[in-house]
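User: Let's play a game. I give you a shape written as tokens, and you guess the letters that built it. Ready? Here's round one.
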């Protein structure tokens, strides 16, 4: 369910700046120590999770990652702060390709409403053993079920069935796996 939150409070601006600085440090030096500091920001992070350089997020405290997940270079997760109850949940044994974007935050569509600068966050759920190809974009409110593959460059605007291959913009089901 979509939740409204205000990202321009002093507290959230400060939190984002701190998280962004840690992401920049990890990009400059993807050492085990910087990776450990990055993982500590997540709500939860499983065993044997590997994150390549160039990882970016806004807050981290509503991100959950399962065991043995691999996140390739330049992944961006636009998440919300703890004050918003929604989460980005990445299952176990997932493969997240380079330049993937998980965009859990959106804004008002009407120009007059957008002037108020409200943010809306909705869950993104990625099941177990999912492969997101390079450059995939996943929008707020989307669930990708277990054992699915989303082809490179796809934009996922609707839920993805389990054991399926989706591709395109917007992503559509190509076939069962």
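Assistant: Ready! My guess for every position:
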């Amino acid at each position: 369910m979509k939740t409204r939150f205000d990202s321009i409070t002093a507290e959230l601006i400060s939190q984002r700046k701190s998280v962004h600085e840690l992401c920049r440090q990890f990009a400059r030096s993807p050492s085990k120590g910087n990776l450990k500091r990055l993982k500590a920001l997540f709500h939860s992070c499983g065993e044997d999770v590997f994150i390549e350089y160039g990882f970016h997020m806004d807050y981290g405290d509503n991100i959950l990652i399962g065991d043995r997940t691999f996140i390739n270079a330049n992944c961006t997760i636009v998440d919300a702060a703890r004050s918003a109850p929604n989460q980005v949940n990445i299952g176990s044994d997932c493969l997240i390709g380079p330049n993937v974007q998980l965009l859990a935050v959106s804004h008002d569509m009407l120009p007059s409403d957008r002037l108020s600068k409200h943010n809306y966050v909705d869950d993104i759920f990625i099941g177990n053993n999912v492969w997101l190809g390079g450059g995939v974009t996943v929008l707020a409110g989307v669930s990708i079920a277990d054992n699915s593959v989303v082809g490179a460059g796809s934009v996922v605007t609707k839920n993805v069935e389990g054991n399926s291959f989706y591709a395109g913009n917007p992503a559509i089901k190509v076939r069962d796996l």
